[in-house]
Amino acid sequence: MGQLIFLIGMMGSGKSYWGKRLSEAYDCPLVDLDSCIERGEGESISSLFERRGEAVFRALEGSYLRILLDKEGPLVVSTGGGTPCFFDNMSFMNRHGRTVWLDVSPGILAQRLVADGNSRPLLSGVGEGQLLSFLENKLEERAFWYSQSDVRLAWDAVGGEDAFWAALSLAVFPALSSSVPGRASY
To answer: DSSP code of 1?
Structure first.
């Protein structure tokens, strides 16, 4: 098993986007956990939620997360927003890799999700006027797990995409270089 970098955070925080950039910059594969589940189960995340329910989806998510230990070499993993919050997924990720919380304020998340078309399963039935409140509540529910990450990168504190990229690169480079893991905030 190689070094695993787990990107965690709310929907719309940029886990897939930043995962792709890390994958390209460090020449290591990117695994999008939701995409793995969709390929393995032969249906979309939305369909899984609708047909089989969130509890079944979360159990599948935990199983697919553990399969990643069989992968060779360094790997960047873009998790689902709820992945750290179920079963012992967060402690599992902390034991087997470096976790990086992409911490983005609910206001910015709402802007991104509206621009993205609100296509997330958990947002089904949430109107644009309710979105900010929904995200604030969801972040409050998840903060306990997210705060257990090895690294917390706060978008609002870093100051823009270039600075965020620099901080993210610094946060994961030691892990990809076999450095001793530790906790940090940027």
So the answer is: -
Residue 182: pLDDT above 50? no
| Calpha distance 46→152 (Å, rounded) | 28
- Residues 104 and 132 sit within 8 Å (Cβ to Cβ): no
* pLDDT at 151 (0 to 100): 94
* Token digits of residue 29: 């594969």
Q: Going from the N-terminus, what domains does the chain have, and what CATH number goes with each?
A: 4-179 (3.40.50.300)
**pTM metric for this prediction:** 0.88
Question: Is the distance from CB of 150 to CB of 99 less than 8 angstroms?
Answer: yes
Q: How many CB atoms lie within 10 A of CB 83?
A: 25
The pLDDT tens digits for 75-123 are 999 999 999 999 999 999 999 999 999 999 999 999 888 887 756 777 7
Cα–Cα distance for residue pair 22/20, rounded to 1 Å: 5
Q: Phi first, then psi: give them for residue 41, nearest 5 degrees.
A: -95, -10
Give the number of other Cβ atoms within 10 Å of residue 126's Cβ: 16
Element (H, E) at 67: helix 54-67
